[in-house]
Structures
1.
Amino acid sequence: MSLDPTLVRNANFINGSWKEAQGGNTLAVTNPATGAAIGQIPKFGRAETADAIAAAHDAQKAWRRLTADARAEHMHRLCDAIMNQIDDLAILLTTEMGKPLAEAKGEIALGVKYIRFYAEEGKRIYGDTIPSPWADRRLLVTKEPVGVAGAITPWNFPNSMIARKLGAALAAGCTIVIKPSEFTPYSALAFGVMAEKVGLPKGVINIVTGDAAAIGDEMCENPKLRKITFTGSTRVGKLLAEKAGRHMKKISMELGGNAPFIVFDDADLDKAVAGAIASKFRNSGQTCVCANRVYVQSGVYDAFAAKLTAAIEAELKPGNGLEAGVTQGPLINEAAVEKVEAHLKDALDKGGKLQTGGSRVGNVGTFFAPTLVTNASTTMRVAREETFGPLAVLFKFETEEEAIALANDTEYGLACYFYTSDLGRSFRVMEGLEYGLVGVNEGVITTEVAPFGGFKDSGIGNEGSKYGLDDYLNIKYACIGGLGI
Ligand code: ADP
């Protein structure tokens, strides 16, 4: 199982060509499981980003005039190329990001589902006719692509975070400039390799790596770019929203979370444990929808803690994601491990009890053992901040009202989960939780056919489903008079 060198492109993809940065500036990329170098990517600044935006702007004129059917054909061909090389692309993803190979493959397959879904959904961008208050006029509402979209994406899903933006953008008739995370650029650049292979029109997809702030500034200020779609931290999202707002650009922001996971006394505990394992420890706890605060009702607290400890010890295996049987890859970098260590120390200092895990694993890489702490309290950092790592903490609660209040006591509102067998409670709690995504007796709920988006500081807009297309469309109203009728 080795890395396909033709997929490791140390150049950016602009207008169908591979380009280096002016002056040859580069950034190093390493494998988090081993610390080994993978390559050097271009360090673009504002000027090169402006070139990419100009290329996307030119290409959009023809791309938007294609029929939805023709755009869909291009998009399906892109997906075919990705599926033909899914094994190689998964190795690339695991090498730069660390997640287990099976998860990498699953992520890429899900990315393809997003693109294929939008390829077809693009054929259903319906308008309206509005009954006219004037006898001699007709009122039409149509939807048009916003223009060039700029996408800034994180490292935790190096493929699918791009796929769901790219799918919606291209289907709507937009072209795109993608800035991936500097930690995981190769999965993004591989979209360029695939686009080249299938002869996607030049300039429809452009990929730029480099100085994040400079690229972000150019995207926000360049008048040829009309939309910013961002997935990442709330801090950077707010910065971009503010800058984009000054230039009246449409924005979609998918930001941080602090997901509550509530287990009621009447829950099926085995299902709740399975859900907690999937929700908390998938991607080594590095997803914005990962459970961050686990609230367990007092009657089942001890039983749930014992079952979860046993499941963590029996089912989760840290290691290099390329090795068989591994479920927990490394964290993305040293800073990520230090954050888990800081949250854990803070929790233990404030009365938390360590049930399992609690330390780094191995001498190389950035591995941390899946960890469970009980006796959590609201003064702990983990009650307020997203850990983004394999640390689960269990809080105890008494009543349904208390659980809802605790769950909502955060500035975030992305994902939440709860387990109960009471139908009435399912609806009461679902309606009481201030979150964009609710898992009821389910720990993993993402699918391309459903919307994905947060409330409050977790963001603006949705990705996936028919709702995700709206973010790439402008509404145009035409009043047609002079009809002589
Ligand atoms: P995370 O903590 O998940 O890495 P970030 O918000 O730091 O989240 O990063 C998400 C994406 O935002 C990455 O592609 C990163 O390079 C980019 N980014 C970071 N800072 C800025 C910035 N000032 N302007 C634009 N993009 C940025």
2.
Amino acid sequence: MATTKPAPAESETAIRVRALESILVEKGLIDPKAIDALVDTFEHKVGPRNGAKVVAKAWVDPAYKQRLLTDATAAIKELGYSGMQGEDMLVVENTDTVHNVIVCTLCSCYPWPTLGLPPVWYKSAPYRARAVNDPRGVLKEFGTILPDDVEVRVWDTTAELRYLVLPQRPAGTEKLDEDALAALVTRDSMIGVTVL
Ligand code: FE
């Protein structure tokens, strides 16, 4: 997206990882395409699919939704998702009047058990700064234009507390079952940069 320029300086770790990858590729030990596929899987498939199941269950089961909004860590664990970078979770619900967005202004804290690995833009300095200073501008770049009377709340994730957005259930989905609903839920809607 446009906010990711200029590119943030690479961290020491990123440089070392890149160096290691180059050596492994050069020696024919790994195929860079395989690594791309692996990263893609964790970014888009494995991780966010867990969060999508949490969201779909909250849409169809009011008692579960209540538990999710009062004790997210326990409610998410009910579905089998817990562990590192997800020990303390808070779920924030989008409504007709409130829209929630997640950021980590300090670094890249993110709820791994429910969303997998953070996307590159989430870790970028421009997103981290602008999500707080100009959330509507950031949302617009993701194609998300909210009515003026919708309050935008930005949640700053920390190592101690991680957030997951509960998006609004799309209209016209009354007949869909939980699995079909889960298939509609995107990673970006659970970060709060898009709506469904
Ligand atoms: Fe962080």
3.
Amino acid sequence: MIKKAVFVVFDGLCDRPLKEFGGKTPLEHAKTPNLDAIAKRSQCGLMHPLGFGKKPGSDVSHLNILGYPYDQYYTGRGPIEVAGLGIKLQDGDVAFRGNFGSVDGNWNILDRRCGRIKDVTEFAAAIDGLEIDDIKLIVKPGTAYRAGVVLRGKGLSAAISDCDPHEEGKPVMTVKPTDNTKQAAFTAAVLNKFLRKTNEILNAMATNKQRVKDGLVPANFLLVRGAGVVPTMQPFHEKFGMRAACIAGGGLYKGIGSFLGMDVLSVPGATGMPDTDVAAKCNAVVKSLESYDFVFCHIKASDSLGEDGNHVGKKEFIEKADKAMAILAKLPDDVLLVITADHTTPCELKTHSADPVTILFCNPSCRIDDVQEIGERAFAKGGLGRIDGKDVMTQIMNLMGKLHLVGA
Ligand code: ZN
């Protein structure tokens, strides 16, 4: 009887055949004895993360395969990134991705990333908590020049434009409503007031005056983009009745875990880069099963290397990750191991594609099939056939005996 589940997502794992690899994909060409052994003990198949013919973004795909239909719960990347910075979001908040940038006296952009400043904690603290027209501005520092930004209060809307022109030398754009509602007009107006006020406060800071004296650009503007209203969410542990943990290196994926109400565990050496310590993450997965019923583990670099078109690097990273999979191959019989990807990232395209991804369900209780190795073509013959991303959690719940009876 399956009591717990480990859900491993290799970002952008799958690919297309490459002539450099004799017509094999990086996953097929890589030496993966551990993943092959796991596949032999699994029910295997292919999965369309958002459904056939849809090219998934990572954020949208993760929501969908973790059981939160993207058309219902995805309202932009802002709320997810902000959740990853530890801001407890409330229903009705409008969240943005932010950068501390530099502008001149006419609000022309001098530097969108403020000279790639390393830390913006002091600047974020100086403007965090400001209130205008009964709306509160929440600003938390992210990595380097980045920040999470939230507007909190009544009558807000995410139907507003960005202020970030995404180009240096151009002026900051006035935020405008993008629909005809009162809420959108109000939100745009209040955000413009905040941008003016924060610019004044930041310009007056001694640290910024010193930066200018030192020939550096000041951190004097909060550039915001990607407004999203925080949807009403049922936390993962309530929706699926499982205490859940998230183990990830990349900020967006910690954000996904936090957004869904999972406990985000920090693992030293988990960098979200090719140098990440996959074994440390797998050991953390095993340890966390003592306290959690569901552990989501995200591995990023397979996607980044695909987006670089680095097929050799992608293959080598898969081989490195495979060594660590020896740890997950020894999970006890009451733990279901699911290994999949959030989308395909073909090296030839250097971006995501709508091709389906491999998925396996490993446990003695699964209807194990004849697949002998991991790979896109091997899994096309798997016993699971093809499923949609929205059905992944359904299958996990089915295998755990947690589905409700349809009918009597
Ligand atoms: Zn992805």
4.
Amino acid sequence: MKQTPENLLASYVDALRPIIYINHFDFEAVDDMIEKISDGARIVEFNNALGCINFKNKSPMSECTLIEFLKHCIEDDARADFIDSAVKPNTFIVLKDVHDSLNDKQVIALLRRIAEFSINNPVFRTGPVFIVASKTVIPVELENYITIFDIPLPGNEEVVEAIYKFIEDVNISVSDEVIDDLALSFKGLNKFQIRQILTLAYQDGGYIDAGDKQLILQEKEQFIKKSGMLEIVNFKETIQDIGGLETLKEWLDKKAKIFQNLDKAIKFGVDIPKGIMIVGMPGCGKSLTAKATADLFQLPLVRLDIGRLLGKYVGESEENMRKALKLSEAISPCVLWIDEIEKAFAGIGGAGGGNDVTTRLFGQFLTWMQEKESTVFIVATANDISNLPGEFLRKGRFDELFFVDLPNREERRKIFEIHLKKRRKWNKDLDIFSLVEKTQGYNGADIEAVIKETIELAFIEERNILTTDDIKAVIEDTKSISETLKTKIQKIRDTVANMDIKTASKPDPTETKK
Ligand code: ADP
């Protein structure tokens, strides 16, 4: 049998799960689903705003508190007349938007009693209790009774169906090609959101075409902004702004062909790349590459800060992670950038041990990566990975691991050129060769800082042209990363020395590293 959300929910009910937590904002869709699987059971509903209401027509039945309502549910006596008669066995209890009351000890105790009764009386049971809310709050005392039910997002077929339904309803014609194309952009959104966006697009011009992808993206950005869990990164950098890292750039160039023609690629049977991990020296272009990748793939760049997901309640961090990952799927196709990933996951499983929450988050993230079929391309960046758990780096998780070392001669030449040209100070009289020689052990950020400083000095001293000596003088005054972070650099090199990792740069045989 096809695994539909209804089937899954019905299987939870059949398995006597006493409390089923449905985190969703589209209450109508959830009601539909509960009704479909109720199989004749009575359904009683408590709504945070209106008290006890009729599940079918939503008319208020009695203004009562959640505690009163729950008490009546377990008392099973005739006094419970406000629920039109006593709660009989085989009654579904639906609680809407009650998440804020789930910290109340009495509410917890009552829910626990209902849950236990339901487990111990499988034939004549009261329950399950469905908690439907747009936020998940799981009290520790109820952890073992609660099952979280996630309404899966519609698959491609369902999205296409939803688009057809919409264009039929408004009576317009849209080519199959446009529909397929839009369906791909809609991936990750629920039917409610899809309809909302289609309505907006339609109202705008009375038609729907491929140009509406931009609208979908804008709307997705809105969801992201509201969530506060992910950040849309605005950037100007392109692949041409990266000096060196040629092997990495060539690799990305190939994958770009897939992302730029995603619909065709999927139809052709291409596996969608999962992502890359870029490890190495600070200030050498890792973040730059994350941005340039989004530009190259023509996708939005979304940053995930794992530290921001940590919450103070039990299960809150996991819930945030789940939401953040779901959101990234909602904005997909996109590039999901996880900066300094070692800071979030270092020490897990190692001697020091990460804490329980981060260990769980890590497991959650790995599973997501493993199972992910979405078009989210991950760019994880890290300086020192000596404390990262081995599972993370195992082949198959990321499509490729790249090591970014300090720039070699040719790369430094390119970096000088890029930053001088960017500031319109490139001139052919500059002896770049001697500057390159003088900056062994400098990273890209050091070189950029040298250029900036020289230009500033020239401006203050009212000189229009930079000379090689001006730049050299600043180099002499600038400490390179190799001096300031000597031990750290060695540690990074030692860690990757024993790893199966690709070097991001093309080799420069003329140079021996410091
Ligand atoms: P990290 O590797 O620590 O993420 P960044 O990518 O943020 O470092 O680099 C910091 C800045 O240094 C960049 O914004 C860029 O201006 C400059 N830079 C670093 N590496 C390069 C490079 N390979 N080519 C050009 N500029 C670079």
